[in-house]
Amino acid sequence: MPGFRKLKTQQEAFWRDEYQVSEEDLDLITGLILDEGTPQSLDVLTSAVILHHFHQEQEEVLRQAEKGVIYRPADEYRVGDELVFSALDFAVGEVVGVREGDNPRYEPFNVVRVDFGGEEREFASGFGHVHPLNRPVEELISGTGEEMDEAELLRLFEHYVACALEPALEENKDFMRFGDSWFLSALLPEIHVGHLNLAEAIIYEAGEPVRAEEMVEDLELEGGSVDAQIFALNRALGEDERFDDVSLDDAPAWYLRALEPEAIYERPRVHEVGYGAEGGEYVGLTMLDMIEEIGDELDDVETIILEEVSDIHFEVVFPHLQAGTMPATRQFMRHLPSDTGHHFSVTFVDGSTKEHMKVWVVPEEGYVCGLGDWYAQMGMCVGGRVTVSALEDPLTFKISVTPQRGRGSNWVRSVSVDNERLVLQMQRANIAVDCDPNMMVNIPNPQEIVRLMERTAESDPPLGSLVRTAIRELVKLSSRGVVHAKAIYSVVNLLRRTGAVPIFSELTRNACFDPVGEGFWAYDSELEGEVYSDPEEMRERPLSKQEDVLRDQVVQYLGR
Asked: Is the pTM for the entire model greater than 0.85?
């Protein structure tokens, strides 16, 4: 005898292989939307379809059960009884014979012979032992038993139905979609270009994102319920390139692309990455502090374990200064929602003026953009130290710098381009903010550096070549003939966007570079091409001609 039978709608094979969206399903969805009067999510529609089919099959089973008695092995039957067999797709048969069963393992029972329209089969009767069909009749009819309730039904099969239902709704002109919600086309008011132009003006005047709910009254839409008007407006705004949904939740909040920084949609050329940390690079132990002080997003690797801090520090390099951006490191991103989409806005508050400004986080690109005006107001320069602090208000941060003491003209490193070559020299310049003296570079003509970076990206030289170019220019300005690692990093970023870790690794593993203490390095051209192969050699530097080389522990850049 077959075991307990599940309904077809309780079986994966039906939903996976047999189910197709029918007109009846679409009528069901139409009625659901009409009854609710609001847009419905695909999840809600999927659940309605599954439960409709399930309940429909249960009702069909009940109708079949009314044709006779539901067969259970424990019950007694007589000739002439009509039985309905739940395990045989509710087939109906007539008892045409009864005999005694013969099995010494069990107490006495009978065997009934049942005629299914010409085919006869035998079944146990009065068999009170454990058997899959000795359940309450209600369970045999419903097909549920204790194995699967409606919630489990939806959990197991909603994926198959959603995959079939979504394209069917897309192809049907009677339904309209926005996001994950569906509504009926016939219930939507018309949104024309005049409405969209007025929406643009409303957002522009507000100067901040505006939800459709806040605009519908001013737009004076005709026809449809308020929910239909909001749905139609959201859909129309989403199809117009002027508008951008910047919400961090399911309710759209619309802003104007014209008011957003270009760096949201197109990575600035100066941010075209040449080299970033991959993890596993060897660097001197003291260099880890420098990497943290610099705060470059290109030095983030997944294996590093960072402590959660409320203050994020970074030192400005030319690509960030030129593009009006700052690093969106993992330390910074910890203060923000984890699922944030392509871009979203946060509020920065100037630490001195208390002025509020809207900036934009672009997690995929690893930066925050929209700081160009603030950099200009602060008189920011390469090497400037910036602190960003999380405030109690969500998505709000304080950004601050320390003014340079004793403002006035000072001798500083300045950069220019001569015959497509980077040139450093000492010049007088006014520096407005506190800087790391090793990182600081004055840039009188930023555009010629932008063009130089573009040419460098096109030629794509190896990192070692860029490091040597930086050292040659920096050593000219040093009375000791040595250069600081952070200065090398800063200058290389005038040639190609590069993280600190790859540069520091280049210094650590090449014998032609020698650490001489306090972050400074000497260069010996005679050792060009000689590479240390393991951490011990990198630490001991056996080829060094420096008598007082600082012995620094060499560590793998994987974490602390």
From this structure: no
